[in-house]
Amino acid sequence: MTSASSTRPLADVYASSLSLLTDLYQLTMAYGYWKQGLQDREAVFHLYFRRPPFEGGYAVCAGLAYVADWLETLHFTEDDLAYLGSLRGSKGAVLFEPGFLEYLRQLKFTCDVDAIAEGTVVFANEPLIRVKGPLLQAQLLETALLTLVNFQTLIATKAARIREAAGPSDQILEFGLRRAQGIDGGLSASRAAYLGGADGTSNVLAGQKFGIPVRGTHAHSWVMSFEDEEAAFAAYADAFPDDSVFLVDTYDTLEGVRHAIAVARRMREQGHELAGIRLDSGDLAYLSREARALLNEAGFPNTRIVASNDLDENLITSLKLQGAQIDTWGIGTKLVTAYDQPALGGVYKLAALRKADDSDWEFTIKLSEQLAKTSIPGILQVRRFVSEKGQPRADMLYNTAAPLPDKLEIIDPQDITRRRAVRANSDYRELLEPIFRAGQRVCELPTLEEIRQYAQREVHSLDPSIRRFLNPHTYPVGLEASLHHFRTDLILEKRPLRPA
Amino acid sequence: MTSASSTRPLADVYASSLSLLTDLYQLTMAYGYWKQGLQDREAVFHLYFRRPPFEGGYAVCAGLAYVADWLETLHFTEDDLAYLGSLRGSKGAVLFEPGFLEYLRQLKFTCDVDAIAEGTVVFANEPLIRVKGPLLQAQLLETALLTLVNFQTLIATKAARIREAAGPSDQILEFGLRRAQGIDGGLSASRAAYLGGADGTSNVLAGQKFGIPVRGTHAHSWVMSFEDEEAAFAAYADAFPDDSVFLVDTYDTLEGVRHAIAVARRMREQGHELAGIRLDSGDLAYLSREARALLNEAGFPNTRIVASNDLDENLITSLKLQGAQIDTWGIGTKLVTAYDQPALGGVYKLAALRKADDSDWEFTIKLSEQLAKTSIPGILQVRRFVSEKGQPRADMLYNTAAPLPDKLEIIDPQDITRRRAVRANSDYRELLEPIFRAGQRVCELPTLEEIRQYAQREVHSLDPSIRRFLNPHTYPVGLEASLHHFRTDLILEKRPLRPA
């Protein structure tokens, strides 16, 4: 059945429990917390990345629908527990005591989860997800949340960049399944690519599961299965008189275009129009110009020219500069694997912990030799200040557990001399929204179609200088000044003063 | 339950039908063949890659267990058919006639499938899978076979390279799930990494589903959840007295090592030994040497040093050259995404088709401007000639549907001046083995453990010059001379003679 099943993207395909979709250390830590009686100590974690992908100026947030589905179905089945019970340490003893397995059997998810809506443009250091709840549970979520959000955010961002290069009116079709990183590497890539700006996918399962428009032409093997190319095209037109796109490069591309035109003429006599031709190799700039000229001369100015062959945003830009006559871009490998940067380095860091006497929060920090890798303490919210036209001006990270001063100032965590005073009465919105409260879903998530349209508006609301590919302008994201000072003090407190 | 479920790797996790895990064009072509009455014309396709990944000299074949599982369960469910029936062309008419959907409903898989065993070292142009059967069916398999084989072969090869760099005695742990490309991008990467040479994974689901040893330490957040680092280590040791690996870089790495040693001393008093420490940032060469010295001085020469942080085969090689004292390598992103080349460009090409009168085979070819991308016609087998010690000497691709001459000669398809005469009585083995006959499985596949051991033997059987990372020696793979001549004639026949 067609379904825009953005509310259950996992359950449709993955029937087995996915509660063990995690790193072992989440379970060994859980065991340790349980042994120490720390399992219910309230904790806050943030999921964020430290640098936008592709040396770009932004990312498009994605994956939340998967996260919500995973969290809603999270529980340990008897199979899961039997497996965990079978694990042995190096001395042959069980790794986990039976009491802990019983604890996992009873475990109910009770965390609060806030998240930035899918399709929102986001920047370095901004919590995409904030988890607040019992330490053991909140820790346990780390790996799955990262897996689901890192990849889909990466691909949605790649698709937005490809849309940027192709322009608003060209068609972008995602063709990547055969080179994807596994089944779900294909399936969730198709979802994220559509979310980020693609118009359709070749992936039929993604069409079925997510309601994404499916598109396709034919392969070289189709042409090779007939006496000659013209016969092959004619047979395809027979099956799809109004939806034929002929792949013309099996033997010789421009000869192929001539064969396509011959068949298109006969189609027209029957009242049908050739939808398009596809170029899949060779010099696409030259061949598309020649093909366009041949089609136009023959009276087929509306026949589309689809191009594919290891394309990405940079090649599309280059082809357009060369006057390529391509109006539909088939993007495979480079999109679904995010070829030039196949992973987003999102992290999940502890930022606050209730004191042992439950009285108050203690804010925590992870140091690093590199300041950029030092975490941000607090229970964070992201406030986005916008112009009167709704254009984002600057984002402020602040600690919701501390009072905000009247005069707001933000400080760039990478360069503390870059400061901005926030105008009084600036319009703003808070990006993190409640998704779960005490383990219960508290919101309806939008459909994939709604997310896609929102994402387009989001990307377009950014200044072009932030969207450009080469050395983009850095969008201002700062720590609210009191948070910055608090963090600096905490770093100095934790970092030993070394001899020079 | 633990299970070395290499025979049903998909069914365990993906309960929904995966028959639509394909590109739409496979179905539009199927429809076209059905309309033309060509659905049962016998065809032969080969799946192969054109260049080993990572600019290396070989690949380790993987993914067949998934392929076999997918093929065994292939059928169109009512949901699948309802979805396909819902698709509309541009003029609003159904894309597929009801008669075709009925055909798909009745469709039974009846192909012959031959494949190279998982774990075998393979080279450019060698068919990893050969499918022979009705044109419609054989075509329909393309996308899923490519998705499953491309990715797992890529990752198994990456793991073999990392094993090459780490040497035979170091431990290699795959830690990549959080940066993997989706759930299955993580899960099948864990399988392929283990197959190719890793010793374990952090991915608990992969442990449960495939019986891979699972390993893990703790996160920075564990340390941050305690008053100080020493208290955190002591608490972890409490939970895992014989299996503790302390992450020492939350605040200051060498201070962390000192804290680990302090706790290790108390552990020893209780009769336990600290298993290891983990370095996750900073200068791993320097820090590991300093840590080793501190541990040794303190009487802990057997405490292992685990290192992680964006490692790959090149960084491991470099660290070893710098005298790094690391004996366990935690490899994440760079392994599970094959970061420096995140896709293997495997293709699936039609190579033979029965003539319309069913009398004989017609061999087919896909041309390209680049000779390397021109396909190889025939019903191919790969014969591997081996030395008396079993070391591979050369591979010969030949057409099983043509007689073999008495004197065998192989010709490099990239450079026809590179020819080799095969010695009479050379030992050899044929790499493609029957997996399905008339749609029925005809073999037991080995367990993952068996495949892993076989893969290690396979890689070690290669000359080191072929295994090296930089400019490896090209292993000789040639076309049997009569196949070469036949192919050349076919190219000349199909390629139009252009004016100069």
UniProtKB/TrEMBL annotation, chains A, B:
Instruction: Enumerate the Gene Ontology biological process terms.
Output: NAD+ biosynthetic process via the salvage pathway
Occurrences of domain Nicotinate phosphoribosyltransferase N-terminal (ranges) = 20-150
**What does the record give as the reaction this protein catalyses?**
5-phospho-alpha-D-ribose 1-diphosphate + nicotinate + ATP + H2O = nicotinate beta-D-ribonucleotide + ADP + phosphate + diphosphate
Q: Give the Pfam families listed for this entry.
A: NAPRTase, NAPRTase_C, NAPRTase_N
Q: Specify the superkingdom.
A: Bacteria
Annotated ranges, domain Nicotinate/nicotinamide phosphoribosyltransferase: 172-354
Q: Which Gene3D superfamilies match?
A: Aldolase class I (3.20.20.70), nicotinate phosphoribosyltransferase (3.20.140.10)
Keywords of this protein's UniProt record, alphabetized? Glycosyltransferase, Ligase, Phosphoprotein, Pyridine nucleotide biosynthesis, Transferase
E.C. designation(s): 6.3.4.21
One GO CC term on file: cytosol
Query: What pathway, per the record?
Result: Cofactor biosynthesis; NAD(+) biosynthesis; nicotinate D-ribonucleotide from nicotinate: step 1/1
Residue limits of the Nicotinate phosphoribosyltransferase C-terminal domain? 381-486
Summarize the PTM comment: Transiently phosphorylated on a His residue during the reaction cycle. Phosphorylation strongly increases the affinity for substrates and increases the rate of nicotinate D-ribonucleotide production. Dephosphorylation regenerates the low-affinity form of the enzyme, leading to product release.
Molecular function via GO: nicotinamide phosphoribosyltransferase activity; nicotinate phosphoribosyltransferase activity
Return the broad EC class: ligase
Task: Output the InterPro entries linked to this UniProt entry.
Answer: Aldolase_TIM, N/Namide_PRibTrfase, NAPRTase_C, NAPRTase_N, Nic_PRibTrfase-Fam, Nic_PRibTrfase_pncB, Nicotinate_pribotase-like_C
- Give the family from UniProt: Belongs to the NAPRTase family.
Instruction: Briefly state the protein's biological role.
Output: Catalyzes the first step in the biosynthesis of NAD from nicotinic acid, the ATP-dependent synthesis of beta-nicotinate D-ribonucleotide from nicotinate and 5-phospho-D-ribose 1-phosphate.
Matches recorded under NCBIfam families: NAPRTase_put (TIGR01513), PRK09243.1-2 (NF006695), PRK12484.1 (NF009131)
The protein here is known as Nicotinate phosphoribosyltransferase
Which organism encodes this protein? Hymenobacter jejuensis
> What does UniProt list as this organism's lineage?
Bacteria, Pseudomonadati, Bacteroidota, Cytophagia, Cytophagales
